[in-house]
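Protocol step 4 of 6: record predicted structures for both targets in the notebook before any analysis. Target 1:
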Amino acid sequence: MTASKRMRRALVSVYHKDGLDEIIKKLHEEGVSFVSTGGTQTFIESLGIPCEAVEELTGYPSILGGRVKTLHPKVFGGILARRDHVMDKEQLTEYTIPEIDLVIVDLYPFEETVASGATEQEIIEKIDIGGISLIRAAAKNYKDVVIVASKAQYRPLLNILKEKGAETTLESRRWFAKEAFAVSSGYDTAIFNYFDNEEGTTFRMAVDEPMHLRYGENPHQKAQFFGKFNEVFDQIHGKEISYNNLLDIDSAVTLIDEFDELTFAILKHNNACGIASRSSVTEAWKDALAGDPVSAFGGILITNVAINKEVAEEINKIFFEVIIAPDYDTDALEVLMQKKNRIILIRKEAKTSAVQCRSLLNGVLVQDKDLSIQTAGDLEPMTEKQPSPQEIADLLFANKLVKHSKSNAITLVKNKQLCASGVGQTSRVDALKQAIEKARSFEFDLNGAVMASDAFFPFPDCVEIADKAGITAIIQPGGSINDKLSVEYCNEHGLAMMKTGIRHFKH
């Protein structure tokens, strides 16, 4: 696959002209002639380089307000003609169609127009027709034609021009074709998703320029992130982010977004091992760390307020992988940057996806994110005893945590501080026992604490164990045919139980 072809004629029609001048000049030096449209023609001529208008080639003007410019046999015939096909060559001669060996096109900025909040008519006008057709035609005929489908490919083309002049190999033309089909498929995906309006009638997703990760879940696994990480975060310090870092970062962001008041959380393997809401960031950090100072080692830290020097000095006493905050004081960064590999992220105001995707078997599983947030008004009393205002606040706090914990899950909370959690257990009883044992190991007094469960209690064993540990109020989805057994136990022993009606399984 080394067949070399020389570029002699180029069709150039682009929206983005930055970085194009050097390519045009180099092509001109190599004797390549140009045909172009509108603003691109003007741009080429402003460089002192002659350029034929598409209208001169086709004999037709641009019509319908510019909707039809390049859609003509004299354009597409010159691109699609097979150079080693006798009949194609004869027809080019018969109809006076010049060969086109290089197509440089980029597409109207459809996604950017949608994101700008433009009107529907403005969005529709940014659906490129001629450009996408040129891309597909040139890519299809890659054996004879070079296609540059976006400004992202300007640099590779320029490198070829500098190294080999106007000569291209079959390998390089096929690479450009591959990139072109990535551009066209991504463009069509964006258009489909706009019209689909998040209905999810068909699964379509396309992301350019993946983020290459150090490795996957384990060092022997390769991994990439197909997304726009830099739209959500600025990484201002630290090593390259890993697959596991990203999973924890995502869990940290979805958890902290549940809280309006000042909150600090520590996560490990996608679960909160410490979290607290307080009036100052330093106190929130100290009480979050107290929840499990052992698991905090190597964890992910996140808060919803700026990091100051005082809390940075406290944080700096332990080893952790990543810290996320909306901002950092300059002197706080001086402290945190003492460790060269520590990943420091500034979270931006950015929209994240409202759906979750997961590959399995021979397909992709898609669901809406669990964005339900219960308030005091959503809670339904199940027992004779009603929780106090402080217990209500703690129950809502615990319910937010259990929602973001691996099932089966139990969380124990007191004074808006996670005392302990039991997560990822095959038995809810085991999850509760794990949480109680952990809380006691860190010397938490569970008398007056509250408990949240991610699913209902099929039997009263959990409420009995919780009662004996000192728990005074419980929040759960309800819905078991045996709810009355747990309610009866609570009434007999003076516990308050509230029902949310919303289950929060997480796998």
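Target 2:
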Amino acid sequence: MRTPIRVCLLLALASGATAFGADLAMRVTEKNYLDAQGFSVFLYDSTYHPVFVDQKNTAMEMILHGHRIATNGDVRLMPTPEQWDLVATLKGRQVEKANNRLTAQLAFPSFDLNYRLEVEAEPGGVKVSIHLDKPLPEKLVGRAGFNLEFLPSIYMGKAYLVDGAKAGIFPRTPEDPMIKVLPLADEPKKAYYLEDWDKAKGYTQPLPFAVGKTITLGVDDELSRVSVKSDTAELMLFDGRSRAQNGWFVLRSLIPAGKTAGAIVWHIRPSVNPNWTRPPMIAHSQVGYVPGFAKVAVIELDPKYDGPKTARVLRLMEDGSYKPAFEGPVTPSTPWLRYVYSKFDFTPVKEPGLYVIEYADQRTPAFPISKDAYANVWQPSLDHHIAAQMDHVSVREGYRVWHGASHLDDARLAPVVGEQFDGWNQAGATDGKYKGGDHIPGMNVGGWYDAGDFDLEEPAQLSVIQNLALAYREFDLRYDELTVNEAAREVEMHRPDGIPDAVQQVKHGAVYILAQFHNLGHAIRGTHEPDLRQYTHLGDGATKTDGRIYDPNLGPDEVKGDFSGKPDDRWIFSTNNPFFQWYAIAALAAAADTLKGWDDATAKDCLETAIKAWNDEKAHPTPLPASWHFGGDPEAAPEGGVLAASQGTESGAPSAPNRPGNAGSATPAATNTPPPAPPAGFGRGRFSVGLDWGAALELTLATKGAEPYKSRLKELLPQIITPEQMEFRGWTAVRALPYLSATEKNQLREAVKTYMAGLDRELAATPFGVPPSLRTWGGSGQVVEMAIRMYFLHKAYPDLVSPEYTLRAVNYILGTHPVNSTSWVAGVGTVSKTKTYSNNRADNAYIPGAVVPGYIIIKPDFPESLDDFGFLWFEHEAVVAGSASWVVAGNAADALTKQAVQ
């Protein structure tokens, strides 16, 4: 029988003399990871997230030719574990530089399983070993194994070889048979919602699509080729996407029974070109530049790359030819993380036209220099992303329906007291006249899906209202491309209806907040899914529930008019706190000021509700939750501001909340379960001072300086404009300048002077001159906030604050940032993010105008922002509040540049 040509080719590739470098010598670096030119291995430089657990960025990780190809290398109890499945407890970590070895001590305490994970250098790569303290418990035989997960976007469609002979192609779509793998009898008890989710999914796991002693991945790609050989159990290759679209390819070996030392031994050999250096990356704005303003590209370089000392700008001519327009020096390189950076200033190029930047052998895509370069950067965020996130209405675009009218059965008071998934918590079993499980009428109006999921996060709703109200009032934002019919629950794109889109969106958010005050008398935590099956839903939000109000007197499949026996209605988490309450008052006041003249009845309702809530809050302050401990890390709290215990680690097992229907009983105590934390920003005292500042400001503006709001604003001013507060809320005081005295105006000006004196020093911490991304979530939001803040400070004090701060921040979002030069606003710019963690991510798609978080640092020093993969929420998830902020920032950049042109 003749051997197929492709198999022959793959065999030749795998056996070539230069395929795997025996000369590759890994060394432990000063940052305590194993490294050689072109290949790095990390081991537990970070740990599993306390809320989201498995984020695909911990345990053993491998970086090959500038790409993180593998993560989560450790013992797992399932072939393709999901986000909340059990992970080991990290007990310690050691680095042996003399032996070029990394070691982690780990355990599954509930199974009395303790082991050591070692990664050590050996010629050509690394040796990975698992050493048990004692033989594997019988119950874990056939269950416990060493897993290493490989990034699908790198390997899909590429070849693999098993034992040097059996060839295959990594599938683009999971196709493997599924089997049922039931939980172990004495497996640690999970929170009820995890148990219910596993049961609903049928306890399924895929079978492997390749098995052997040696597996070579990416045989046909010299930049991603890596071979793994097992000295112990067979290697099995699984497709984790069979269980969830965000799954990775999993290479796994089961731990044999009876073995301790060397229970698992793998030899990993990457195909590394010894002369490889990462190509230069020219970071620039993908929408171009305005003639009279600074134009600076940042060039990201491999430290070993010896590049030219100059760069060029070429003009793209009508016939497709390139004409030299400018050549200039690049600055000496400066190190940051694992790369070095130079800058190329081409500000002298001012003639309108199309241009590219050329450095070494790299040439950027074309970008314009134009007086209206920023004119269209924000519209997709307003008329696409924010529109597509609208809840309780259908959203149509031409032939396409983004989604139907969703969640018309909203909502029931959460019938469970205690901690839920994603950090949600219900403090009490009753709220006013409602008890847990009761339907609260009138809550099926307004609001926006928060992000890639469908819950209505209260801070996000309030932020969108305030930012769009700000954009409308500051820029006279009359842009109109939507038809919004709230009564018919219909929205249509590209169909103007005579009402500014920003105004209609402000109303859409306001009616949701008004419903809270009219029904419950206060702001709430938000509206959330009742179970993980709904929480992980992708696609049309209207298909998540049946749209009928739950009636417990009906059978599970019984329907009676607008009622059904299916308990799929979302839950209202009514837990309140002073932050939500004061923030809601501010949002309603801003909405009232925006809606005047467009919808006077709703504007009146917003203002009256805000004033009543102000008076009530002053008379009877909402207590600060006892569990809020100031002085902690404010950035540690996830979106929504609640820090939950780990739901998947044995070292931080969550409390087991009561099942629905038992809301009246106390939540069982649990060990190692931290209480909910305050919203992000409270921890350092930034917002613990003057919680009512925003409300006082917005009510002062909405009432044209009425009392007591103006007096309270003046009373708070000294506390708000301190150096610590200026960056976060103090800058907003410039919006109140018409109501300040001459003395107060001078105090504010001096505060801005002090702030600016230290700002450049802080921004110089990175080569990009913007706040760095140092947390578990990409930091684009902080940069957008900088753009807004500096616009208003420049407008008030043009002699103190340059417009270039705002433009630098906007250009950063649009491509002048680390890792790549992709615009982080989906669909905006020549090259932009087109795979985002949105609710259509299962289609490897995006929603135009979505603003992604951007790069994070894979600890200790690897900046990452994947372009070809949209399933890492910390890099790719677009939150609706981010889009609303971008509407303000984009308009700010456009206004600044047009003012200069005029």
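Step 5 preliminary note on target 2. Residues 742-763 form the longest helix (22 residues). Residues 1-19, 629-685 have pLDDT under 50 and may be disordered.
Proceed to step 6 after PI sign-off.
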